Amino acid sequence: MQVDTVCRLCSSCCPITAHVEQGRIVAAKRKTSLPPDKAWLCPKLEASADIVYSPARLRHPLIRQADNSYLEASWDEALDLVASRLLQCRQQHGAETVAWLRGMAADWGAPWDYVNRLMNAFGSPNSIGNGSVCHVAREMAHNYTYGAMTIPQIQKSDCIVIWGKNDQHTNPPAYDAIMQARERGARLIVVDPVRTGLAAMADIWLQIKPAHDGPLAMAMIDQIIRCGWYDTEFVAQWTTGFEDLRQAAAFYRAEDIAEQLSLHPADIQAASQLYAQSETACIIDGNGLDMQFEVFDATRAVAMLRALSGNLDRAGGDLIPQPVKARNIQLKECLPKDRCPVTSDYPLFSTFHHNWGLHAQSCVVDAILEGKPYPINSLVVQSGNPAVTMTDSTRVNQALSQLDFLVVIDLFMTRTALHADVILPACSCFEKTQLNRAYLRHSLVVLQNQVVEPLHNSWPDWKIIFELGRRLGLKDEFPWKCVEEAIDYQLEPSGVTVAALREEPEGIRTAPLEHQKYREKGFATPSGKVEFASERLQKAGFSAVPFADGRFDNPISFAGQADDYPLIGISGARSSCFTHSQFHHVPMLRQQESCPTVDIHPNDAKNLDISNGDQVELTSPRGRITLTGRIDRDMKPGTVRIAWGWGENEPSANLNNLTDDYRRNPITGTPSNRSFMCRLRKLQRHP
Ligand SMILES: Nc1nc2c(c(=O)[nH]1)N[C@H]1C(S)=C(S)[C@@H](COP(=O)(O)OP(=O)(O)OC[C@H]3O[C@@H](n4cnc5c(=O)[nH]c(N)nc54)[C@H](O)[C@@H]3O)O[C@H]1N2
Ligand SMILES: Nc1nc2c(c(=O)[nH]1)N[C@H]1C(S)=C(S)[C@@H](COP(=O)(O)OP(=O)(O)OC[C@H]3O[C@@H](n4cnc5c(=O)[nH]c(N)nc54)[C@H](O)[C@@H]3O)O[C@H]1N2
Ligand code: SF4
Ligand SMILES: [Mo]
Questions:
Q1: What's the superkingdom here (predicted)?
Q2: In the chain, N or C terminus with fewer CB closer than 10 Å?
């Protein structure tokens, strides 16, 4: 039997066909417009059966005993215990001292709305995601500039800028589209400190110094304005603050600043010209820009390039999405107006969008450890592994161990779950039906369909939330008997139903693809125009224009300690075999990527007397880790790239033992855990 669904083993949400025999998944194939020999194979999907049927899967709810052992429990026992402890916490300390922390696998769509609904009805505003280190800080920058996060129209573009993104390993559908565009002659500009596969095939590769993307974007803006390569008509009619932007960008003349970015002025000029003078051009921005201290202004400046060049909401440019009309089911109105969340230091980030919710994730740790702005006593962690993936793991683990009560909802016994009082076994993405954010943010809806029955005694997340809600006295808020009913209720305004989606496995389009919608509706900003200068930011005490004062602070963590920590550590690479801390236990994937590595340029390796395969130690002011050294010409001299996500299975290689969570972006609370100063030394010669 074949089942059409959406894979959710990572956030790419690829449409796939799963092959099922006798109730078991035996294989799964990604749908692609490329011929099979040209499509990029996803190793995680190839290993999907090994992931689903892994012997390490949690089988039953577990409750911690007085001697710290875990006892198997029924769902009734476990959920009754969770509900009674959360109600007790609310009664003793207040509803807001209960928080819910969600990770990548929780998606940012309908499944999140269920949790927000539960927490709002319960009375706590503290339902918090990890968007401060993922794309949500960037999403806010797009939003503040032109009202929504754009979607690059790769297929029809003449020039594709790939800025801090590595789609070859992180987003196969986008990679397929880039390859197709290349075949019909599209030009490629890549901004990346590392010579990735995409950088190697680029027409122009800007090997930027890590974390210096903001000044580069400003230099490109300056070049484009000075040479008159911008879309004068669009700028005159549809933007505000052009003169302010022009003045700010003039501080960043390519000739003056290129050296500080370790680039050549001629390359910045050539990239600016190719981008601005191509008939159509789009920018794919990525996580290389996120997790940086300057994430907000840097991604705002990149967003402004789209408007300046006239590519905004144009075919082959960057599309303003048309979200699916869905009901807001979060019940925010249930919260008392004066109940402030623990993210109150970042009010603009907490409110920039009506259904994004809260994402300054570090605030949860502040609240637990420092009682700031007030203590959190009980926490539910769902679909995330903060003990490994959050910045400054030592601090996070200390926080997790100090809670009065911790619940973890996961498929596996993670390092986070080791701190838990109650562990609830969740289904994998193939065992449940779900509606993903990727398919709500733009008009084409594709359903994630259940492929096989839940394994062991695991439950889908929706069921866990609905059943917990009922035990918290919220029967009326969770009236749905199955997830299909809940999805139908949420999608009702769009006219789309689960039944119809199952009839149309390729998806249902809820609005025709349209460009230049602003001509009728304007942009969803306070002025209705693209805001090069933002009054909202100015009123809140921030600079209206990005990098307005010509500032050039070093945004890299521990920059002041460069004498002792002379190398720049880049957090990455993401391997196509793993999703963050996940799947390192799967033998088929470990055969492809056997151990955690650090990539070192040959010059640095020579200075440190390091050869391929040596055991090396990396140290930052926060801690130390050990890895296998790998000599790599694609690295930038003076930078080392550290394999991401190994801390779950190889705790001595946990990258976040090195990262800093004290210095954060003042708007989004983003720490600089993508780039930090560190020191490298050889431990043991490779035998
Ligand atoms: N230094 C550094 N820090 C980073 C990053 C980095 O590159 N460098 N990346 C950042 C980014 S972009 C992100 S998004 C975060 C990711 O941070 P996390 O979201 O914590 O990442 P994962 O390791 O993917 O954790 C997901 C967990 O959910 C479980 N899971 C999988 N599917 C399901 C499901 O359907 N239901 C439930 N209940 N659980 C499920 C998995 O077993 C796993 O334990 O990390 C961030 N932190
Ligand atoms: N296989 C796999 N796929 C995934 C994930 C995964 O863990 N594994 N995670 C998913 C998630 S949650 C996310 S957020 C996405 C992220 O996916 P991407 O946005 O592609 O993120 P990365 O691959 O971490 O980094 C992208 C590129 O940024 C570069 N980079 C590093 N520092 C800088 C810098 O300072 N400036 C610039 N310009 N570039 C820099 C890196 O060298 C890398 O090539 O991937 C998703 N897909
Ligand atoms: S990239 Fe691979 S793991 Fe991620 S959603 Fe697509 S098929 Fe699944
Ligand atoms: Mo992410």
A1: Bacteria
A2: C
* pLDDT confidence band for 472 (50 / 70 / 90): very high
* Amino acid of residue 119: M
CA-580 nearest atom, ligand 1: 23
- CATH topology for the 151-319+516-539 domain: Dimethylsulfoxide Reductase; domain 2 (3.40.228)
Alpha-helical (H) ranges within 57-212 are 75-93, 110-122, 136-146, 167-170, 172-183, 197-200
- Kindly give the residue spans of alpha helices, DSSP state H, lying in 504-627: 518-521, 535-539, 587-590, 602-607
* Ligand closest to CA 106: 1
Atom 6 of ligand 2, residue of closest alpha carbon:
579
Q: Which two tokens stand for residue 378?
A: 């009980």
Tell which atom from ligand 2 comes closest to the C-alpha of 580.
7
pLDDT at 348 over 90: yes
Cβ–Cβ < 8 Å for 665, 581: no
Pairing state of beta strands 151-152 and 318-319? Answer: antiparallel
Domain positions in the chain are 2-52, 62-135+324-509, 151-319+516-539, 559-684
Q: Please indicate whether residue 105, judged by its CB atom, sits closer than 6 Å to ligand 1.
A: yes
Q: What is the pLDDT of residues 435-449, one digit of tens each?
A: 998 889 998 999 999
Residue 292 CA: which ligand 2 atom is closest? Answer: 35
Measure 172 CA to ligand 3 centroid, in angstroms: 7
> What pLDDT is stored for residue 376 in this prediction?
98
Give the Å distances, CA to CA, from 533 to 251, 310, 503, 536: 16, 17, 47, 9
Distance of CA 274 to the CA centre of its chain: 29
Q: Is the pLDDT of residue 110 over 80?
A: no
CATH 2.60.40.10 fits 62-135+324-509, yes or no: no
Ligand 1 within 6 A of 136 CB? no
Question: What pTM does this model have?
Answer: 0.98
- Closest of 603, 598, 636 to residue 617, by C-alpha: 598
For the Cβ of 104 lying below 6 angstroms from any atom of ligand 1, the answer is yes
Rounded to an integer, what distance in angstroms lies between the CA atom of residue 432 and that of residue 448?
8
3-class SS at 312?
strand
